[in-house]
Amino acid sequence: MKNLKKATKVDFATYLGVTVSFVIMYILQTGGHLSSSIAGQLVPICCFIVMAVSLNLVVGISGELSLGHAGFMSVGAFGGIIAAQSLAGAVPFAPLRLTIAIVVGALCAVIIGFVVGVPVLRLRGDYLAIVTLAFGQIIKDLINCLLVGYDSHGLHIMFNISGLKSINDLHLEETGKAIIKGAQGAVGITKISSFPAGFILVMLALVIVLNLIRSRSGRAIMAIRDNRIAAESVGLNITKYKLMAFVLSAAMAGAAGALYGLNYGSLVASRFDFNTSILVLVYVVLGGLGNIWGSIIATVVLYMLPEALRQFSNYRMLVYAIVLILVMLATNNDQLKALLRRIIPTRKEADAQ
Amino acid sequence: MTEKKPVFEKARMVPYPSQAIIPERDLNKTPILECSHLGIDFGGLRAVDDFNLTIGRTEIAGLIGPNGAGKTTVFNLLTKVYQPTRGTILLDGMDTAGKTTAQINHMGIARTFQNIRLFSNMTVMENILVGLHSEMSYNALTSVLRLPAFFRSERIARQRAMELLSIFGMEDTAEAVAGSLPYGAQRRLEILRALATNPSLLLLDEPAAGMNPSETAELMENIVKIRDTFNIAVMLIEHDMNLVMGICEGICVLNFGQVIAKGTAEEIQSNPTVIEAYLGKQQ
């Protein structure tokens, strides 16, 4: 029971930390004490925290390397944008429209996650990584071919596979508006994302992931990661639990994508490319595989870092890379760990003394 | 409880149709396991061929043989890690053809592994809770919403896990990480995890490997205790002949994938074919 309590304590500390940080930032933001560059980062940070937490479910908890997480974010973003833009007249209340958009984004990602997950989860290790990587690229290219418009007749969707069509081929009415213009991406988006919405989404993702991990299903997912053959021998349905982790992770990435998309006036699909997937993976790995609060801290620090390094101008990414390497070295350093242990004795050692 | 336990009393083995023998007390019940003409080929290699075995409801059975005889392969066939090329396996009278490893576990076979396969990053308690997975019934949504059914089911499962741990007196290691346990404790934990799935047949693959004589003696008592408490059948692969001859009622000897002898400990010990398989032919 001790462990349950300890785990519960860590979970509550995580919730509390996120809430306190939100309250402080929100007060600062509404009081106008934040510089515009930091205020503009608040929603994206929330989105990337959700991305990191959800990717941690696949990479850390389920133990499968996925390199296409941005693909799900992209699906959620454009699904959410289509929903929010076409409901602009029907649902004038922005927070409700945002909620609907996030749900639609998550559902789109669930469908794609399921379609991709069923065949892909038969693969393991490197092969899974390669296929998810390809998936991320394919999604990006598919969205680049997408033409979507909305008028009084409803949604008009066209796939511009030949590359010869334009938004005019949708034959929208005078009052209609274009939502996605192929490679130009989504245009004329009404910005409805807000920092409180981002906070709620982060908390939801945390509750879902943490509660799932400390349950029968979460233990099954971790057992399959630790030893697949043994997990089968105690009667676990491998496919079911692998798919559960993968699809749930996709859903959260989709929700984060919808929030992210509705934070900008326009959005292109190439925003969610391979680099974005790797970026999120870096957050997860540096925060610690399977460590949820670690993912949150790593995301905040590493997302702010390039901004903070603006003074290095062209050498910015070089410094960023050096910092990453130093963090990796530091967190793997036994002497540093021993030093930390001496300062903060763990409970085990305190008991032994 | 501290006095020395009497020597384990084995049942008298009686004939059963098709040349098998089972303990007398199980005679009127369906045998838990009936294999007939079981075989598997790996390419051109006949790893196991024409394997016939019947195990009674509460029998402790032994599977022995020289290294490479195909003993573990038989376990892998029974649990469908490999699909048999030939033959049938009846579990409690039901055909297991086309079942997966997980389904076989639901049907009643649990096993341990020769090279220990624990969920080594998880705690001892969590390992057993994974074993109790199918005994719990709440779904993922219930756990995310933390409904009362979640807490009820978890509490019962944790109690059950502690009961299981008490079989080997391992209650105080419940929160230790499984991979950090000493070797013998890991083997014991694996047995408990298998027991948690509520099997009717427990397969133990070299349970005494790496144990010293006193640990082995304790293990023998515990295997008998498990059989008596849970009223299940146990089949074990073991190289420690003291253990095999001490507690196994029916023994099956395998060599080059074929059964070369079946019988009680006394019969096996005096069987010339068995002696030849182990020691070679007398010049």
3D structure, described in words:
The complex is a heterodimer of chains A (353) and B (283). Chain A is mostly helical and 353 residues long. Chain A has one domain (2-273): Orthogonal Bundle (ABC transporter involved in vitamin B12 uptake, BtuC), CATH 1.10.3470. Chain A is 69% helix and 5% strand. Chain A has a three-stranded antiparallel β-sheet with strand order 2-1-3. The longest helix of chain A is centred in the first third of the chain and has 29 residues, at 2-30. Chain A starts with a helix and ends with a helix. Chain B has 283 residues and is α/β, with parallel strands linked by helices. Chain B has ten helices and twelve strands. Chain B has helices spanning 71-78, 101-107, 124-131, 140-145, 148-167, 183-196, 213-230, 241-247, 265-269, 272-279; strands at 13-16, 20-23, 33-42, 45-55, 60-64, 86-91, 94-95, 109-111, 201-205, 233-237, 250-255, 258-263. In chain B, the strands form three sheets. A six-stranded mixed β-sheet of chain B has the order 8-9-10-5-11-12, with helices on both faces. A four-stranded antiparallel β-sheet of chain B has the order 4-3-6-7, with helices on one face. In chain B, strands 1-2 form a two-stranded antiparallel ribbon. In chain B, helix 5 (148-167) crosses helix 6 (183-196). The longest helix of chain B is centred in the middle third of the chain and has 20 residues, at 148-167. Residues 1-6 of chain B have low confidence and may be disordered. The chains are: A mainly alpha (353), B alpha/beta (283).
